[in-house]
Amino acid sequence: MDKQEFEQILSLSRLMEKTGDREEFIRSMEPLYEMMEKVRNAAELEDAEDSDLPGPEDFPLRTLLLREDVPHEFSCTEELLSLSERRDGGFFSVPRSI
Amino acid sequence: MDMNNYLQMDIPELSGAMRRGELSVLELTAHFLNVIEKEDPEIHAFITVDREGALRRARELDGQPVSERRGRLYGIPVSVKDNLLTRGLRTTAGSAFLRDYVPATDAEAVKRLREEGAVILGKTNLDEFGMGSKTENPVYGSTVNPVDPERSPGGSSGGAAAALASGMCLLSFGTDTGGSVRQPAAYCGMFGIKPTYGAVSRNGLVAYASSMDTVGVIARNAADAALALSVIAGEDPKDSTSVPVPADYALMTVPGNHGEKTIPGDHADMTFSGKALKDSLQGVSVGVLEEFLSADLLSDESRAAVSSFAAFLTEYGASVTYVHLPETELLVPVYYMLASCEASSNLGRYDGIRYGTDLGTQGPLSDVYLGNRTAGFSSEVRRRILAGTYILSEEHYTELYLRAERARARIRRAYRKALSSCDILLCPVVRGKAPFLSGKAPYDDDLFTVGANLTGLPACAVPVGPSSVQLVGRPMAEGTLLSAAGVYEAVNAGERRTGK
Questions:
Q1: A91–chain B nearest CA distance, Å
Q2: How far does the CA of residue A45 sit from the closest CA of chain B (Å)?
Q3: Which element (helix H / strand E) includes B408?
Q4: Mean pLDDT of B330-349
């Protein structure tokens, strides 16, 4: 992961196609990119193991985002839409009537 | 009795007066609708005001025989944030996508409010889908802070806090995913509480980040909040993450002149004296989060509020120590990464065909989806969808998403450790004054609030002088937080906020 790649992927995203000033929009994503870098480089997470992942004892929570659901190509339209269909399964709270 | 006398009462007392027929629900409702009509053109706290519905409901409640009047919020005029579904009343979530959406059902929290006799005045403004901390909405306008009209009320429940602080309602219901109840409550000088994750059903809450979304309360004081919370809390089969709450949930215990009073449920006149309250916090251990107190971004005013509250707690019998939270640096990044991932998934459904209003794009289906999604989402929402999708992509899932989840587990352990020796963690809730309407609210501003969302712990914002402090508690220990805040309010009678 590097910033150039991040910006390139953003500029290719379909969600950006109709964005007016793309460069400014991409610049506005810098704080979010910096946060990703911070977590990626956090030394204290180097020795983290799978047991460090949240478990049922931590939350009355289902795992929302499953590894097999991750899209293979970055896009914000078709992949995400089909992804949300698969993930939904009645779990999310907004009724389908919307 | 003059209306102003009633407005000074706590909600348990006021509701009792209406149940006994001493005050007309219609008269009280009309009073608040008139305040909205006068104040809201400037404050812009509401997206939708339901004048007709509120008056109809008030007449219905007044028409009930006194002997049959039930409900802990009987006749109490409330506001509801516009991301909680209200049957028959438009719910926009602050988004163009839902500008015409009229739900067929109530959110579970709203349903419980109605069952207990509340009168819903309208739906309050928010950042789109709750993503933001200024209630700066490109579709429905920006809300102004009634305390200082040059400034924002905070967000995303800024409409809820502003409505209450300007006297447009007696109680506001909001949602808190990263501080969205506590932060605007603090900026508007009100009491705000985010309950334990799972204590209040999320059914009917328009989803943003489902593992952190929580329905919360903004109130004039801790007693009102305790009652409101006890009404909306409880397991709900329609939300699989909701859990049963203990019998003493949100029970606020404050020693009074006439013996110990408990809220909710006690409608007796509550009077306090410093003498009766002395040592009332004996046995309560409080840990001041040292890393937060030494944060560079913290203003002197917010730091002084924490010190002053710590001194108060000591004076009234609590033991106060300093505790460490070593994972502080990661709080904001981990929160924004995980919230963005969940948002990118939750908002995937809004395409204008299957979900949301078709915003008028012509052409092939893919263009219609694309056109609707670019026109329907504000820049901030798009930023988070893009970031979340990037983090979840196959190439970056392990180095970003998994690491963020591991960091979350560490943060949770750090909080758990701090709470193993303390009943309450004391820290700031906001860096200082609210941002100016024209200014920016950087993500870092959320440093003090996101921890409670990442961990699912209960937390509240308590007004202290011109500032506020935050109390964080153990799971389901809302009563402990409310009691400590209640003692402070009772001692400092001037701190009991009554709105404008």
A1: 8
A2: 7
A3: helix B403-420
A4: 94
Residue-wise pLDDT tens digits, B470-494: 999 999 999 999 999 999 998 886 5
B249 with B132, same domain?
yes
Record: contact A29-B386, CB cut-off 8 A: yes
Task: Give pLDDT tens digits for B155-195.
Answer: 999 999 999 999 999 999 999 999 999 999 999 999 999 99
- What single letter denotes the amino acid at residue A24? E
Whether residue B422 contacts residue B321, with contact meaning beta carbons closer than 8 Å, is answered with: yes
**B164-to-A69, B25, B32, B227, B324 alpha-carbon distances in Å:** 43, 18, 10, 16, 35
Residue B447 lies inside a defined structural domain of this protein: no
Q: Which two tokens stand for residue A44?
A: 């204290």
The verdict on residue B310 lying in a domain is: no
* pLDDT the model gives residue B440: 87
The predicted model gives A17-42 an average pLDDT of: 88
Identify whether residues B124 and B251 lie together within a single domain.
yes
Six-digit token string for B260? 């110990």
Question: Which residues of chain B does A42 touch, with a Cβ-Cβ cutoff of 8 Å?
Answer: 329-330, 403, 407
Which residue in B has a C-alpha nearest to residue A18's C-alpha? Answer: B374
Whether B28 is in a domain gets the answer: yes
- The whole-angstrom distance between B404's CA and the closest CA on chain A is 6
Q: Scanning every residue of chain A, which has its alpha carbon at the shortest distance from the alpha carbon of B205?
A: A93
Q: How far is CA B306 from CA B247, B287, B425, in A?
A: 31, 11, 11
Which of B211, B335, B386 is the best residue to mutate to test the A interface, defined by the most A CB atoms within 10 Å of its own CB? B386
Local structure of residue B494 (DSSP, 8 states): G
pLDDT confidence of residue B268:
36
pLDDT category, B255, cuts 50, 70, 90?
low
β-bridge pairing B459-464 and B319-323: unpaired
Mean per-residue pLDDT, B119-148: 97
The answer to whether residues B223 and B338 belong to one domain is no
Instruction: Give the best residue of B177, B210, B389 to mutate against chain A (max A CB count within 10 A).
Output: B389
Would you say residue B436 lies in a domain? no
Structural domain boundaries enclosing B73: 3-276+471-495
Question: Model confidence over B271-292: pLDDT tens digits?
Answer: 444 556 777 898 999 999 999 9
Residues of B serving a catalytic function are 81, 156, 180
User: How many beta-carbon contacts under 8 Å exist across A and B?
Assistant: 199
In this predicted structure, what is the pLDDT of residue B252?
81
Q: Say what the ipTM of the complex is.
A: 0.89
All residues of chain B having their beta carbon less than 8 Å from the beta carbon of residue A29 are 383, 386-387
What pTM was estimated for this model as a whole? 0.90
8 Å CB contact of B370 and A17: yes
Query: CB-based burial of residue B306 (10 Å sphere; 0-12 exposed, 13-18 middle, 19+ buried)?
Result: buried
Q: Are residues B186 and B255 in the same domain?
A: yes
Please tell me which of the candidates B336, B396, B399 has its beta carbon nearest to residue A35. B336
Structure tokens at B50: 């339901």
Q: Where is the domain boundary, B404, B419, B437?
A: B404
Domain boundary among B351, B385, B404: B404
- Give the Cβ contact number of residue A52 at 10 Å: 18
Chain B residues lying within 8 Å of A75, measured CB to CB = 389
Q: Do residue B21 and residue B166 come from a single domain? A: yes
Domain tally, chain B: 2
Q: Which of B336, B384, B406 sits opposite A45 (nearest CB)?
A: B406
With contacts defined as CB-CB under 8 Å, which chain B residues touch A45?
403, 406-407, 410
B346 pLDDT more than 60: yes
**What is the residue-wise DSSP string for B106-135?**
--HHHHHHHHTT-EEEEEE--SGGG--SS-
pLDDT in tens, B69-104: 999 999 999 999 999 999 999 999 999 999 999 999
Q: Does residue B13 have a pLDDT over 60?
A: yes
